[in-house]
Amino acid sequence: MYTVPALVFALLSSASFAAGTLTVSTAQGSVVGTQALPRVRQWLGIPFATAARWTAPSLPATRTSPFNANAYGPSCHQLTTLTTDYYLEFAHQDEPLTVSEDCLSLNIWAPSTSRPQNTAVLIWIYGGGFQFGASDLGVYNGRNFVNDNDDLIIVTFNYRINMFGQPNAPQLVSTTDSQNFGLLDIKAAIDWVKDNIAGFGGNPNRISIFGHSAGAAAADIYAQAYPTDTTVKGMILQSGTIGALSDVGSPTLDSAPWHTVAQAVGCGNSATPAQFTCMQGKSAETLIQAARDANIIFFKLVTDDIIIHSDWANRMATGNFLKVPTVVGTTQHEFDPLTVGGSLATGGNAPPFITTARADILTQVGSTCGASSASKGRYDNGVTTWRYQYQAVWPGINTRQDLRAFHGADIPLIFGTFASVQTNPAPTADEVAFSLYVKNAWAEFARNPSTGLTGVGWPTYNPSADTLVQLGNVENLTGYSLASPSLLDATCAHTTTLLTILDQYNTILSSI
């Protein structure tokens, strides 16, 4: 029997052990996490970099006191429109609660210390067209992902976007320094994880990255920007590739939005040092509001031949990129929410036939064909590649009849957060089983990028064979079926014709 002093000692020892598993040393000082689930530890809002406005990121200062990592950090400033607001609603993605320019933080979900350590690491890069997006959205919470899969850590982080991520400022044009600051933030986050993840139970030599939409395109850009990188061992590109970006091409600067905002806030429209200094002195809220008032919806990435190369297609063809195992995927009807949301945002109708036809053409030209070239370029260069198409439609995720397997519909299933973002109807048994399947497939890839998906039955990509993995197909709602990618890609040689047809549909829609 315990005496009172012995019992107190035992309780204190137990508490110290529990706290100790949540306190981790990093290069900047210790961080204290929380227990997200009995089997999952989490650390939220850890600063991985710091950056003054329109400067490259650098490591944060060393801290002398433990950092309490129990809440998400602020998100980066967002630039949204009514159309994208509709998309966020359809995709079950809320607006961030707080925003700040001091937004470069990351979040880690790791298995409890009673589970296997030295795990594989998956780093998530959110989408949002490089204009909006944040790591604190409930749909990106990594706790269920880690709870359901051993040998896995999930990391999410913030990176700068819109005019703070890529301002297209004439004053910053350089042959050596990129003003794609958001892309530099992504590199800084990956580097921080490599340097510090061992303390959280992760293996710095087993890091893969995965992203959606702009986040997937950023991962594809990373492969070309750092072809000799030794940190990233695998990539999953969900609904995004460099080839799907319309703003990547010849090295030109789109400074019109920059000058429009500068003029609106009283800094003039001349590319002078004084203009830049004036813009630095304006509040972030003032600049974002000026962009919205001017109906600016897009600040382009800068093709600078530093991070983004104008000869990206040739680099892919000649193998001048990071050759690591890669998964390339799309959803079957990517553009449903943007065509429907775009019609609703302008006060017009969204007649099903027209919106469906427009969405299908945009999906083919703007997503599927980019995935085709990204897959084939890797295949031609001997890179182990898999390709999938998400086809599932779940009543609680697809809340309108004109939303099929749309852009981002797969994310709640992959993260296992579907039950928390859908309220009516409740998840079906098939939906639960499908989520477990895709979470496991992604985890298997992270554990062993070279062979993991082969272990769950996926054939490696071959454009001439039945190697397109159809996820949630009607033939197998809880798993996959196979088809030929050549059928999916048949019209990619006719994009000009498809765009002409799209213009005709747009004319019809404008007259309704």
From TrEMBL:
GO terms for molecular function: carboxylic ester hydrolase activity. It is an enzyme of class 3 (hydrolase). Pfam families: COesterase (PF00135). Its EC number is 3.1.1.-. Residues 1-20 form the signal peptide. The keyword tRNA-binding does not apply. Residues 23-336 form the Carboxylesterase type B domain. Keywords: Hydrolase, Signal. Belongs to the type-B carboxylesterase/lipase family. PANTHER family: ACETYLCHOLINESTERASE, CARBOXYLIC ESTER HYDROLASE. This is Carboxylic ester hydrolase. It comes from Candolleomyces eurysporus.
